[in-house]
Input
Amino acid sequence: MVECFKMKRTKAIRRLLSLAVCSLLLSGWSGSWDTIQKESEKLTSVKARFTQSKNMRILSRPLVSTGSFYFKAPDSVRWEYDVPVKSILLMHKGLVKRYTQGTGGLTEDAGAALQSMNVMMQEIALWSKGRFTESPSFAAVLKAGDGPTIMLTPRDEGLAKIITGIEIALAPDRPGLISTITISEGEGGTTVFKFSDVQINAMLNDSMFRSP
Amino acid sequence: MKKYRLIVLWCALAAAMLPACAGPRHIRPEPVNPALCRLPFSSTSCRYIHGLDAELPGGARMTVMGVSVVDPETDTIQAAIMTLEGLVLFDATASGSSIKVHRALPPFDGPQFAEGLMQDVRFVFMFPAGAPKTTGRLDNGSSVCRYQDNFGMTVDVIAHPGHGWKVEQYSILGKKLRTLKISALKNGVPGMLEFEAFSPKPYALHMKLISAEPVPPAEKK
Output
């Protein structure tokens, strides 16, 4: 049962990580899939702040988390929450580790680090090249306009029970820059990520993806 | 040789039975104001959000967030568990003896998981109903309010002066089922809860308070 949970949880983390990576990689374009691909190939790193707002039936107002997101091509990610629970999710060279703040300081969470990263690497590899339409998990539709939007729909029923859809909105006033990502879970439950202070191709040291 | 084996067997059995049948603590009967025991529990509807650090059977560890809406007046509990990234793993409402599961991802979708979890949430947030069966003191001076429900289950609420509270639940056979350590209060709400379940599978939750707020009557409708 615990192993099963770990797998589900790791899959969820993997998909969210992949989503965040692909979303930030969209910076700098606002047209066709070809444009996306060409612009994505120019990126070597992304650094941004994020605000995560969770809405669901049981909450009277959104539960807000904030933190920082870092990506370095080809496949390194640091997803760091400052509040309300300090945690750092690291992905580097196929390894995923999570550290959370406990009474004894940052402790490694065994649950997120056990699974094979083959699928994740495939997803990251596809999305980092802007190849959303080739994702085995989500079907992608690009809606062009002043504020272009990408709609991702789960390809299989199992995933659709967990995530009903994902909407990635680009800022209308800054072409190509991500405005928000909305993940829908059904019954009005959504998680909205807003990115700010985005820096492209900044110098990021590998060590920040290896340890907290 | 045979006699020796019997002695070893008896000792092993006794050792195995001892923790299970240790039963509730011995208390010296003495008047205790139940309000002292009730202090860390809210008597009105509240919404709590906690960071949950869970130690699962087998030693695995995970961190999630928990939302609990507890209404002692209507005996209703809502509980949700989500990952730090916001993915909802479990969401259910329990009213009296009925449970409605709104969302449960595997392995949280097992038939007994919802019932067990809602019982745990009830234990953590709801004060035992009725008047204490007895009150008294432990040898260390702590005050105890002892409650017993219709099924023979015993719940001891122990108030340690200046050191928070501890709640212990025992089965009718005296087997310890659950414990809860409650830290000192901040604005009337415990900042830290340490929950431990012993049966059927042991696990522990370290619950750090993120927020607590009253639920207005209009929202309950």
Remarks:
- The interface with chain B takes residues 1-2, 4-6, 8-9, 12-13, 16, 52, 54, 56-60, 63, 65, 81, 84-85, 87, 98, 100, 102-103, 107, 109-111, 161-163, 183, 185-187, 189, 191 of chain A (CB under 8 Å).
- The two ends of chain A are 29 Å apart (CA to CA).
